[in-house]
Write a structure and sequence with these properties.
22% of the residues lie in helices and 17% in strands. The chain has two helices and three strands; from the N terminus they run H-E-E-H-E.
Length: 65
């Protein structure tokens, strides 16, 4: 399923999931899944050989840098 959403426009929909985009400059969502492997496989099947994959945190997640 190809998403026309932008990466941060609907983060509640993708909370806790891995999301793939075509590149660092194009934030269109091309695939998403609960595992990074499945996310990459779905993007590859759509013709994206090197997608950028990020994990969208669940609401309330705290980060320590």
């Amino acid at each position: 399923m190809t998403h026309k959403d932008k990466l941060f426009s609907d983060n509640a929909k993708y909370a806790g999931k891995f999301v793939a985009t075509p590149s660092f400059s194009d934030h269109s969502i091309i695939s998403s899944a609960s595992t990074i492997v499945e996310t990459i496989e779905r993007a590859n099947k759509k013709g994206y050989e090197n997608p950028v994959v990020v994990k969208i945190p669940k609401k309330g997640t705290k980060f320590l840098f």
